[in-house]
Amino acid sequence: MKLLLILLISLGTVNTGKVLVYSPSISRSHLISNGRIADALVDAGHEVVMFIPEYEPLTEFTGTKKAKVITLRNFKHILATRYADFDDFGKLMLTISRVGFMERLEFENTMADMCDDLMKRRVDLEQLRDFQFDVAFSEQIDLCGVGVIRYLGIKNHLWISTTPIMDNVAYNLGIPSPSSYVPTIEDNDNSDRMNFWQRAFNLYMSTGTQIVNLLATDKTTEVFRKYVPDFPCVREIAANSSLCFVNSDEVLDLQRPTITKTIYVGGLGVSNETKPLDEKFSKIMSKGKEGVVIVSLGSIVPFGDFPEPAKQGVLEAIKEMSDYHFLIKIAKKDETTKTLITGIPNIDLVAWLPQVDLLSHPRLKLFVMHGGINGLVETALKAVPQVIIPIFADQQRNGRMAERRGIGKVLSKLEVGKKNFKESVLTVLKTPSYKKNAIRIAKMMREKPFTPEDRLVRWTNFAIDHGVLEEFHVEGSRLSGIVYYNLDVMFVVFVVFSFFLWVLVYVFKFLLRVIRLDVSREKKNN
């Protein structure tokens, strides 16, 4: 009620609308991001439906606490069985340095298959059409959502980039992305300062990423054209999005070109208020002579998925850092790690932790994390230094972002062991500049002129009031690659210059022959 009152005061009279948030259950973090958008809009007085195609089993988690949820179940769960040859997805990610383009394309093909499975159940989608939504949100990871929203007759589409501006989002919206200083998002261990070889690699990643994007979106478009023959290309629909909400913070993020329709809302739903901890966590946070360190690597790749030598090395390093108490988040069924910590008094294991509340605790000195954008923004807002162990997707790039801001240090997942873990942790703990920079960044993020909630609600209201925001459209998104990069102009200039050069050479040769003839005649006359 307090948030609603603040919004009512700040926004004046609220014109409520009907809002659809399309969010397939691809991962818990994506549901969290999209659920926070849904909840903020409910608080602002809108009627919000969060539609969740259950690509992965949900249990009871939906990401939203306030919006109406419609779940479409009984899919083939292709995503859950894709890595059947491995114990799970996390262990696979820890065996490779990065995901290659062929693996990315395989994932996109899988998503297109899931989209086809969804469209075969078009009767189930009709319940959404009956709501007559004013606007609809979908995220960048699954352009099936873009197509479904158009199929339902909703023209006003608002895009969500659940990470810093994704490469396919930038490409489709016409946002300039110079590869000399804008690192691609997925599996790219670069910041915005790159040497020659890093720029060459970034250009390679940028080119390959766009090829994958084109192939993937063409396949998704084919899915819709099976059922609606004249259906537009999903890239075209995405390019006409009225707005794009970016789940990052412009103070924290690496600077890059943007356009009017990109709205940063990183930190949405992260309260500045500190909630009291329960007895269990209060007791844990009182341990350790110098304070507490949290180790939490997300829900997809828990700590227990690391190879045994890496886990043992980390635990040995923790035992030697006896002045600090370590709180490690593990999977519920991880009995191996429970056995390994026997005899190590400065460790507590939990299967769940109140992350935002713990980040506010004054005795928390460091957060060892995987670099997911939600956790990274939350940690930055609470001024807690970080050690980032990136696993996949945007996490390497996010880690370099934290290093660039001087609030964290990256440790490669393939180099996790006793020496490297201890060195990384102690470097951040014992170097005052990390905490100093974290305090500065947090203060700037909190004191920006408008809160993430303000931006989300005000711009969504604007889109509802004015319809499709064609005025924000970037013409570059409608141009072919040849025209966008002026390759046709450069070709003509090259041809003209070559012709001029040829004429110049021809005239020079002609004059040279004339001179030689004159010289020859003079010699004969003499």
From TrEMBL:
<dbReference type="InterPro" id="IPR002213">
    <property type="entry name" value="UDP_glucos_trans"/>
</dbReference>
<keyword id="KW-0472">Membrane</keyword>
<dbReference type="Pfam" id="PF00201">
    <property type="entry name" value="UDPGT"/>
</dbReference>
<keyword id="KW-0808">Transferase</keyword>
<keyword id="KW-1133">Transmembrane helix</keyword>
<keyword id="KW-0328">Glycosyltransferase</keyword>
<feature type="transmembrane region" description="Helical">
    <location>
        <begin position="489"/>
        <end position="512"/>
    </location>
</feature>
<dbReference type="GO" id="GO:0015020">
    <property type="term" value="F:glucuronosyltransferase activity"/>
</dbReference>
<dbReference type="GO" id="GO:0016020">
    <property type="term" value="C:membrane"/>
</dbReference>
<protein>
    <recommendedName>
        <fullName>glucuronosyltransferase</fullName>
        <ecNumber>2.4.1.17</ecNumber>
    </recommendedName>
</protein>
<comment type="similarity">
    <text>Belongs to the UDP-glycosyltransferase family.</text>
</comment>
<dbReference type="InterPro" id="IPR050271">
    <property type="entry name" value="UDP-glycosyltransferase"/>
</dbReference>
<feature type="signal peptide">
    <location>
        <begin position="1"/>
        <end position="16"/>
    </location>
</feature>
<keyword id="KW-0812">Transmembrane</keyword>
<keyword id="KW-0732">Signal</keyword>
